[in-house]
């Protein structure tokens, strides 16, 4: 039993949907040690708990660029078919253990070619690990569905190639496209031709925006990237003015971008702990209670809750939901709403969505 509860229910037992979860941010420390030894990688610790602590300390920087430096270590052990397959397999098994019934794994294949893999071989290795894990979960009476979000690094120059890669694998595990990496100074418009290619092929995209940069970045993600979801999207709150607040009500005025995102129900892939670590919410405060996620949720935005990088943040989706229960007194109904938001925003078929929505509703009804 986890230590996170809502209305007397163990949150770990509830069905969950994880939309924003980085493959190179979800490694087990012991796996890093073992894969690192195989390739002679120098590590900052020689046991799993010490390595876990090192990642937590390095990640709590208040800066997105500094936070991103920890990935140099994780990607180093993900440069072979064996390494990628093992990491993907364990990633999915850990999701299932946490109660996730649908997950999308985002990662950038272009970062995993240092030991001779091609882009296609890298994607195939990850898919093999995913499928192996799905089979293991099923053999123990469980069920999980998982897709790949193929990401391009926004500050590099391979987006057109990565878009074509995603399209080649759209019927073999790839469910969507993303751009990742340093957001500020690298807008989605820089990769316009890749997004044009994807739009013409009717392939969905989510775009990191509203994390390391503000409203202009979000607007560009929506226009240039045709984003169906916003990776984090937290700084959409910059486009909301609170005009009056009492114990019983809050009166706000939405700017044009915030209004568009709310009215179109464009999903916000919010990652609370990560947002604290990277300074995303610095303008509102430094504690979880300062995070605008509760305001966005109460206003009816399509808020989803995600772990982002489970290793760097020392977290799980269960923990993220539990933290919100503690910080904002969210109820079982609140958790079900954000979970159904995630299901409705998943890059899957409508038929799969209907099954997923029913599975979530059944799980919550049973918990009640």
TrEMBL record:
Its EC number is 3.5.4.4. One of its GO terms (biological process) is hypoxanthine salvage. GO terms for molecular function: adenosine deaminase activity; metal ion binding. GO terms for cellular component: cytosol. Its cofactor is Zn(2+). InterPro entries: A_deaminase_dom, Ado/ade_deaminase, Metal_Hydrolase. Residues 15-362 form the Adenosine deaminase domain. SUPFAM superfamilies: Metallo-dependent hydrolases. The keyword Hydrolase applies. The keyword Metal-binding applies. Keywords: Hydrolase, Metal-binding, Zinc. It holds the Pfam family A_deaminase. Belongs to the metallo-dependent hydrolases superfamily. Adenosine and AMP deaminases family. This is adenosine deaminase. It comes from Agrococcus baldri. The lineage of its organism: Bacteria, Bacillati, Actinomycetota, Actinomycetes, Micrococcales.
């Amino acid at each position: 039993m986890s230590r996170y509860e809502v209305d007397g229910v163990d949150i770990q037992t509830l069905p969950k949907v994880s939309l924003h979860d980085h493959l190179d941010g979800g490694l087990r420390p012991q796996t890093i040690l073992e894969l690192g030894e195989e390739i002679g990688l120098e590590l900052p610790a020689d046991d799993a708990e010490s390595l876990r602590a090192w990642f937590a300390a390095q990640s709590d920087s208040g800066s997105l660029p500094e936070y991103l430096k920890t990935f140099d270590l994780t990607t180093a052990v993900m440069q072979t078919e064996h390494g990628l397959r093992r990491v993907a397999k364990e990633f999915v098994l850990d999701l299932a253990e946490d109660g996730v019934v649908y997950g999308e794994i985002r990662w950038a294949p272009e970062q995993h070619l240092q030991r001779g893999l091609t882009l296609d071989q890298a994607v195939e290795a990850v898919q093999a690990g995913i499928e192996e894990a799905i089979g293991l979960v099923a053999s123990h009476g469980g069920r999980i569905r998982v897709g790949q979000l193929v990401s391009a690094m926004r500050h590099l120059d391979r987006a057109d190639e990565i878009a074509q890669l995603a399209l080649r694998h759209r019927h073999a595990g790839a469910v969507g496209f993303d751009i990742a990496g340093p957001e500020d100074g690298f807008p989605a418009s820089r990769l316009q031709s890749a997004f044009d290619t994807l739009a013409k092929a009717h392939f969905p995209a989510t775009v990191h925006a509203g994390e390391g940069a503000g409203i202009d970045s979000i607007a560009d993600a929506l226009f240039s990237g045709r984003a169906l979801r916003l990776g984090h999207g937290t700084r959409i709150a910059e486009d909301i003015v609170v005009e009056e607040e009492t114990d019983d009500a809050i009166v706000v005025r939405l700017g044009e971008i915030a209004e568009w995102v709310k009215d179109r129900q464009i999903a916000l892939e919010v990652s609370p702990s990560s947002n604290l670590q990277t300074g995303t919410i610095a303008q509102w405060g430094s504690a979880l209670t300062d995070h605008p996620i509760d305001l966005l949720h109460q206003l009816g935005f399509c808020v989803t809750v995600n772990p982002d990088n489970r290793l760097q943040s020392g977290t799980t989706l269960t923990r993220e939901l539990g933290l919100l229960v503690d910080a904002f007194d969210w109820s079982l109904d609140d958790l079900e709403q954000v979970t159904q938001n995630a299901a409705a925003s998943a890059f899957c078929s409508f038929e799969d969505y209907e099954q997923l929505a029913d599975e979530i509703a059944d799980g919550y009804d049973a918990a009640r």
